[in-house]
Specification:
By secondary structure, the protein is α+β, with helices and mostly antiparallel strands. The chain has two domains: 79 residues, 2-Layer Sandwich (Alpha-Beta Plaits), CATH 3.30.70.1280; 88 residues, Alpha-Beta Plaits (2-Layer Sandwich), CATH 3.30.70. 37% of the residues lie in helices and 24% in strands. It has six helices and eight strands; from the N terminus they run βαββαβαβαββαβα. The protein has a four-stranded antiparallel β-sheet, with helices on both faces. A four-stranded antiparallel β-sheet has the order 6-7-5-8. The protein is globular and about 50 Å long. It starts with a strand and ends with a helix.
């Protein structure tokens, strides 16, 4: 059965939007998803379903709202879409620390004006590549004080966006491969 990667936005950061991973797994399993697994506490779910990614996204949002009482944004990629994200890896030759190499997953492609703003936000040694519904960003010095990161993490992109570091991205692909066997 096809694997999907569900990326929840903005959970378990501070006191807001607290989500227990066992409760999340139980809620999604109870809703009929198979092979539900989570990775770390930041809202990474791998599951299997014959449904299209859009249906998986809608159903996951509904289950989380109903069972956990949270209205959350999320982004879904199929296992094959995530494999393509990893295969492209446009900054792999320069990104030497996987914790500072991030992929922002978007619900839709960015408008041309937003693309220009994102590209302009990269300063000094930072690098950014926008490729379809993903933004690859290399923050060699700092993520916390990066204007690029602030823009990518904020609401000004005009689409739902959630980022994961390269270590998490590749681990999620490994889990999706396990689920799809």
């Amino acid at each position: 059965m096809p694997a999907h990667v569900v990326l929840l936005r903005g959970i378990n950061i501070g006191a807001r939007n607290r989500v227990s991973m066992p409760e999340l797994r139980d809620a999604l399993t109870g809703a009929g998803f198979d092979d539900v697994r989570t990775y770390v506490q930041s809202g990474n779910v791998v599951l299997s379903s014959r449904k299209a990614a859009e249906s998986v996204a809608r159903e996951c949002r509904d289950v989380i709202a109903e069972k956990l009482g949270l209205e959350l944004d999320l982004v879904v990629r199929t296992r094959d879409e995530l494999a393509e994200v990893v295969r492209r890896d446009p900054l792999g030759g320069v990104a030497e620390n996987p914790k500072r190499y991030q992929v922002t997953f978007l619900s839709a492609e960015l408008d041309a004006e937003v693309v220009r703003k994102v590209e302009a936000a990269a300063v000094e040694r930072e690098q950014v590549v926008i490729d379809g519904r993903e933004v690859y960003a290399w923050h060699p010095d700092t993520i916390a004080r990066s204007k690029l990161w602030t823009l990518l993490a904020g609401p000004k992109l005009g689409v739902t966006a959630t980022a994961r570091n390269w270590t998490t991205v590749t681990k999620l692909l490994e889990l999706a491969d396990e689920v799809s066997r």
